[in-house]
Design brief:
This protein is an alpha/beta fold. It has helices spanning about 1-20, 25-35; strands at about 40-45, 50, 60-65, 80. The chain is globular, with a radius of gyration of 13 Å.
Length: about 80
């Protein structure tokens, strides 16, 4: 489980680096994660009702193409759960 969270964190950080460094950085991301573009899911919308990324016993790679806001108006709710 810790490995999955670490990979998701790295993937999200790489998405931020992608915006700062340009297209060439994706080749490095794919090499580090041993993936291809087909294995990545774009996050293109935030949420005001909370959002959960990933599923148990699977590795999913996400990237954001812009700044996104995740909030939850429910009492005790989480804006983004990974």
């Amino acid at each position: 489980m810790k490995t999955k969270k670490l990979l998701l964190t790295i993937a999200m950080l790489c998405a931020v680096a992608h915006g700062a460094r340009g297209q060439a950085s994706w080749a490095e991301v794919y090499a580090m994660t041993n993936t291809t573009a087909a294995k990545w899911t774009q996050l293109n919308a935030g949420s005001t009702e909370g959002m959960t990324l990933g599923a148990a016993n699977t590795t999913t790679y996400y990237y954001a193409n812009s700044n996104l806001s995740f909030t939850n108006s429910s009492v005790g709710g989480s804006g983004l759960t990974i």
